[in-house]
Amino acid sequence: MKVQSPEPNRASSYETTIKGTFAEIARGRRIIGLIDNGNFEGKIPRNQWDWIQASLASVALEVLRENPGPPPSCTDAGWFQGNTKLIACDTERSALLYKWAIAKIGEVYPGARLEVVDIRDIPSRPWATAWLPETPSESEEILEMLNTMNPELPIEGWKVIKADKFDREMMMVIFQINRSSIEHLTRCDGLLNYRFNKIRMKFYKTAHDALSNLEAFAAAVDLPTDELDELETNKSHLNEDLSFLSDCLEILD
Question: Whole-model pTM above 0.90?
């Protein structure tokens, strides 16, 4: 499989917009995660997200009536490792209101056991990032190169997730790695052989490990394909949701 790269011409601005948006949303805000305990990975099916949003809207007024005060200010911050929906909250109260609303909506889809968790408790798989030459660009060849040049590195189960940025014939590659390789990467401080040079691989065991570096955290965050294709549409929907909550507050007043 060839590493996914942005389309020419629009790539730089598009990627920057998405990652920049995540950094802007996350910085200075309380980040919470929405998981499904009915799934062993905590994964929320992306095709159910619209139903979850609709259910949240249906209980918004009830939550605000039971907990009078400032309205919540929450923003969709994307998907962490494709499984967990991230929500950025401006205040602690906003996070609490969101949590209470999730508790009210119950089983939105068959088997759903939705729960809001602190970012420290988000289920995660270890991941790593590294700047690599643009060639080879096939996932299998990249992993073969790493394995051949670093035979002591246990890469069983590693996957190349995507190439996130491109600069001067180099690409930022995001890997899903296994826990057994963490010890080796720690021992060598992430310094690995690659082709006829050295590369530095940054690795993260948990979401919490990457919180001090928004760029590193953003590498594990993405938007669903349909959201990428309809970014402006989703922004509009988000604004409508926030407007709805504001209207609810006016009703209460």
Answer: no
